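User: What would this chain look like folded?
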Amino acid sequence: MKFTAKELFDLLNYQDECSWIEAKGGSESSHSVMETVSAFSNEPGLGGGYILMGVAIDESSSSPAYKVVGVSDTDKFQKDFATQCAGMFNTPVRPELAIEKLGGKNVIIIWVYEVATRQKPVYFKSEGLPMGAFRRIGSTDQRCTEDDLYVFYQDNTGFEQTPVKGITISQVDEQAIKRYRVLREKANPTAEELAFDDTELLQSLGCVDREKPDELNLAGLMLFGTSAAHRKTYPMLRVDYIRVPGNRWVENPDDRFISIDMRGPLILLVYRLIDAINADLPRGFLLTDDNIQATSVGLPMKVLREALVNAIMHRSYREQRPTQVIRYDNRIEITNPGFSLKPEDTLGQPGSETRNPLIASVFHDTNLAETKGSGIRAMRRLMQEAHLVLPTFESSRENNEFTVRLLLHHFLDEKDIDWLNSFLSLDLNDAQKQALIFVREVGAIDNQTYRQMADCDTLRASSELRMLKNSDLLKSKGKGKATYYIAGLKAQSQDPNTQPQDPNTQPQDPNTQPQDPNTQPKEEKRLLLMSELHKDICVKVNNLKKRENDPAKLTEIIKEICSLRAYSSNEISVILNKREDYIRKQLIRQMLKNKELIFLYPEMINHPEQAYLTNKAE
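Assistant: Here's the prediction, encoded as structure tokens.
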């Protein structure tokens, strides 16, 4: 093997787990190890990866660090592992194994080869495709989706080429064709397709059915079809623009949101959408280092356009649900069905993974979208030039969606500037200043959120967060990968709106701040939480069987509970007398996917006080 156990162990402590190294301690289930085997076997271009058995995260360390726990019975592990690799998958996997001593204990190095293309995907026979196969995305093993199967099978026929039965070229919006011709001529006056008639143009763009050239395919319908044709065939493939008062989803049930449903040819829709949002945007101000007079600025329109075009262009049209653009007072959230085909840590780097190449080609040819792979980089550059916090991105393979957040509450006002001026002696950079404002607004920040805001790698983010911690501006909480930061004593003391509180002398209000379950007896906590609920909800909870396992029944009760206020997964588990991991993984995860629940802190999904509210729009 290329690397020794010590070299892999040192790499883990230097850079943490990565795309080609996974650490597994003695407590991991055999299924967890086999998921990594599937992921290393499948990931295109990775070449394979290492699993270091007998090494686990050191929970006592304040930064990501690993310790040697060893493998007690190496012979038994090797026999069981080889048997599982040969029999659990649709095709046998033959990894290499070696036993080495590390810190006086036995550890096992496993090298898993990437299998040949013709053998992919490697999946669990008992689970089938696509969910039984895994890919290696960053340092995680992710279940495959239908989109991944196209990668494995190298199928060049995308879903956008699906014929739309009964929708002919006669149902093309003439204004959409005209808009394409105008934009294309501006981009390239000599483009040969400008000389084609409308039918030839649609054929050249790949927008018609190959078998029936007089009928549109899905790409043709979405790009050029009339609104009536959209409503008739795919009514849920639309864009919903939702204006929500306040910073959270329907905080006041009596103050309902305003929603505008938009559908029609994409090449016209994007302009209507931009105009609607632009009319709602605030205007902030910019204070340069050498000028005390603030100048008026706003969210750059190219940033908004790029975010919207990316959502429309890269969304999954397999998913029968709308793209949502939600305008809160302090942010814009754009959520489109379909996770990012590029790993989150490579967003903004050159190169593009395109889910809908025909739709993307039309947007690129008309200059509605940046050149391939540069859109996110351009958004970050423009936000930085406007002295705004960089956009943050969240890709969820589990929920099959991608979210862009433009945090409008980071327009600096006079109070923000006065507050930051109290830290001038520390020579903070822009990213660190923005992180302090973020913590003031949201309450916490983690490495991932900081990386996206600062457009930097993990090591730089760790270093700059550590500097803020050492200056008492931030305080770290949690361990290892779960580390996050809250306002430190110095930041609190300089903020007139926030005074440091000693949790030992100032008890928290359970109606507004969940109490730490480790400091309160479970039964006492349950009685307190139950006292908040309406009588009819209490009756339903008390009538649950001791081992109730009906997801539909539990889901309905959770929706009723979270309609009262935001509840954490721990609080819900205490009320229902269930394990928290079961509540979170089996119920809340699916409810978020189904849009039955929403996050209390959508700006930071891993917020330490994350809780859930019932989605009253559903």
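Residues 159-233 form one domain. If you want, I can go into more detail on any region.
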